[in-house]
């Protein structure tokens, strides 16, 4: 492997080592490992990084990323502990090569301009690698234990990490680089880090952004996107990570946390290039499946997800991501039996959230007509519902909102004598999958018919003397069905009918016993109709109403994310940048 004649800074191996590795060689080997990794050669990539993980910071970062991903995919304690140890080691290795400042220099930074030319290439890269390792360590802190302390520790690490990325940007901008290759790789990391921070912070609700700005954070969507796009077009080592972030944002984050579409055409262009380079890469096959899913091309989505699933077996836990998606694709196709197969596999094999998986499986089974169920399956539904609360977990001292939602629904199931109205459709709605229904009329029409059928039977059930619980929760059940009907009609481009349904939900507010979330969610659906009609002022009023006049309901934070992104779009940059004193 050729070494640049301009790079003579050495990464010393342990004292008993007889050889040394320069920065160019470390970067070249890390780039080889990245290519191996994205071509599903996970073991070969790990084998290249691990031997020098105690001495070379790029090998240490590579090894840490692999252990971190394994921890995230498995959620198993031994893998989380291994990742934590690898990241601790990585930070120690990076600190060895970071620029050492005297007390006088540290104090001087406050009063005079820093001379970034004093940094060597190695010291500059050490700052960047430290920031990356610290960010992963912070994310791991949230799941290492269940206390509030872990939340505080994680938050402080993320704050320090953001400050380090800003300092890296100063180094990039103000330092005279002797090696263009070194600068190229460094810049791709700065673009990825700052771009991701700016993009993700910009998604947070306004009140949280104000707090974060007070303690040193900033969030600017346009700046973040531009950094990531620039990074994705470079030849730097972190180019592929910029691409992954852009795909994740446009194909997942946009659809979960906002009412907006991701930039699907841009994602198509990115995936053409990446699949050409990594034709069997599990990650890009997965994103191709997600792209087709978001386009509403469900048959194509199934094909690509299955291709991703079957492309490798080294990390079987990655299959769980594909199974999650396959579960929902089949739900949108109303193929409950096929969806049930993937739901069952997740319950039995994945440790991410057994509470959610268990409730999802039970909900899908509830969608099957009684005559389609065996007697053993009817008993299984009840058993699953009883098990849902048993697996409830806490992360960073907090219960997961979706798990709390699932537990409340199981209580309702038993209160209504083993019955719930269209629970899988309700989950599709709260996971924000209804927007896919609007891609093809037949998808929305299929869901609409199920909701309408349940509304037709609603009166009979409420009046049934054999089940008085239906009367107790009459308003809750009616509001749910009307919300789903209204949401369907909006996707079917029937705004007047949709508005009538949603206004009826809002009118039921005082009669609803438990499912208070239905009303603010209905108000936001109304706001989206106003947006579609170009009625900006009315949309803002509705969104502000949902934001300020309702609180303490299920999945509140999830809705606030969507309200924030809608207001940000309607109010423009004055809202997005959150000037002090006003939104």
Q: Concise description?
A:
With 583 residues, the chain is mainly alpha-helical. 71% of the residues lie in helices and 2% in strands.
**Fraction of residues in H or I helices:** over 70%
Q: Strand-residue fraction? A: under 5%
Number of helices: 29
The biggest beta sheet reads: 2 strands, antiparallel
Shape descriptor reads: globular
What is the rounded Rg? 26 Å
Count of beta strands: 4
Q: Which sequence of strands runs across the widest sheet?
A: 1-2
Kindly report how far apart the N and C termini lie.
55 Å
Mean pLDDT, to the nearest integer, reads 88
Low-pLDDT regions:
1-19, 573-583
Give structural notes.
A hairpin with a 2-residue loop joins β3 and β4 (398-399). Mean pLDDT is 88; it is low at 1-19 and 573-583. The strands form 2 sheets. This protein has a two-stranded antiparallel sheet. The chain is globular and about 80 Å long. By secondary structure, the protein is an all-alpha fold. The protein has helices spanning 23-38, 42-49, 57-74, 77-97, 103-111, 121-144, 148-174, 180-202, 206-214, 221-232, 239-257, 264-277, 282-295, 298-309, 318-332, 336-349, 354-367, 375-387, 401-415, 423-430, 434-437, 441-462, 469-472, 474-491, 495-507, 518-532, 536-548, 556-571, 573-576, and strands spanning 10-12, 20-22, 394-395, 398-399. α6 (121-144) runs parallel beside α8 and α14 runs antiparallel to α15 (318-332). Pfam families: Iml2-TPR_39. This is Tetratricopeptide repeat protein 39B.
């Amino acid at each position: 492997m050729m070494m640049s004649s301009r790079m003579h800074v050495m990464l010393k191996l342990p004292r008993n080592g007889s050889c040394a590795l320069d920065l160019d060689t470390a970067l070249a080997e890390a780039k080889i490992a990245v290519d191996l990794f994205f071509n599903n050669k996970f073991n070969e990539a790990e084998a290249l990084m691990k031997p020098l993980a105690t001495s070379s910071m790029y090998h240490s970062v590579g090894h840490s990323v692999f252990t971190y991903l394994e921890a995230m995919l498995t959620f198993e304690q031994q893998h989380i502990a291994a990742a934590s140890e690898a990241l601790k080691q990585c930070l120690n290795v990076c600190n060895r090569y970071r620029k050492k400042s005297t007390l006088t220099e540290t104090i001087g930074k406050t009063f005079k301009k820093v001379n970034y030319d004093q940094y060597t290439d190695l010291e500059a890269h050490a700052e960047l690698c430290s920031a990356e390792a610290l960010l992963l360590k912070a994310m791991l802190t949230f799941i290492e234990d269940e206390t509030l302390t872990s939340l505080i520790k994680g938050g402080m690490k993320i704050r320090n990490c953001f400050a380090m990325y800003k300092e890296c940007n100063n180094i990039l901008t103000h330092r005279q680089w002797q090696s263009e290759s070194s600068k190229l790789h460094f810049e791709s990391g700065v673009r990825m880090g700052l771009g991701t921070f700016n993009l993700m912070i910009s998604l947070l609700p306004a009140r949280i952004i104000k707090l974060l700005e007070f303690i040193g954070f900033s969030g600017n969507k346009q700046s973040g996107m531009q950094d990531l796009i620039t990074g994705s077009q470079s030849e730097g080592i972190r180019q592929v990570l910029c691409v992954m972030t852009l795909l994740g944002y446009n194909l997942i984050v946009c659809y979960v946390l906002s009412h907006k579409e991701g930039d699907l055409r841009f994602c198509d262009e990115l995936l053409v290039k990446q699949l050409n380079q990594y034709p069997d890469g599990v990650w890009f096959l997965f994103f191709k499946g997600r792209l087709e899913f978001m386009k509403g091309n469900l048959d194509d989505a199934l094909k690509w997800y299955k291709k991703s699933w079957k492309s490798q077996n080294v990390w079987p836990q990655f299959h769980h991501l594909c199974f999650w998606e396959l579960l929902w694709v089949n739900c949108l196709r109303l193929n409950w039996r096929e969806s049930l197969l993937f739901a069952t596999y997740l319950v039995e094999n994945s440790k991410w959230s057994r509470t959610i998986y268990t409730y999802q499986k039970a909900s899908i089974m509830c969608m099957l007509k009684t005559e389609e169920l065996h007697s053993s399956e009817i008993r299984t539904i009840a058993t699953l519902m009883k098990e849902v609360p048993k697996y409830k977990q806490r992360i960073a001292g907090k219960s997961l909102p979706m798990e709390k939602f699932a537990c409340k629904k199981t209580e309702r199931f038993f209160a209504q004598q083993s019955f719930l109205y269209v629970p899988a459709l309700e989950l599709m709605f709260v996971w924000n999958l209804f927007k896919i229904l609007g891609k093809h009329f037949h998808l929305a029409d299929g869901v609409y018919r199920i909701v309408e059928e349940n509304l037709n039977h609603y009166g009979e059930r409420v009046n049934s003397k054999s089940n008085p619980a239906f009367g107790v929760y009459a308003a809750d059940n009616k509001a749910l069905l009307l919300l789903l009907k209204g949401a369907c009609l909006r996707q079917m481009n029937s705004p007047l009918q949709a508005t009538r349904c949603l206004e009826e939900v809002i009118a039921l507010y005082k009669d609803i016993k438990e499912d208070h979330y239905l009303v603010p969610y209905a108000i936001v659906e109304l706001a989206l109709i106003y947006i579609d009609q170009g009625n900006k002022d009315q949309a803002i009023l509705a969104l502000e109403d949902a934001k300020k006049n309702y609180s303490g309901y299920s999945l509140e934070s999830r809705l606030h994310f969507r309200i924030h992104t809608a207001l940000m779009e309607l109010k423009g940059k004055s809202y997005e940048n959150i000037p002090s004193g006003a939104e």
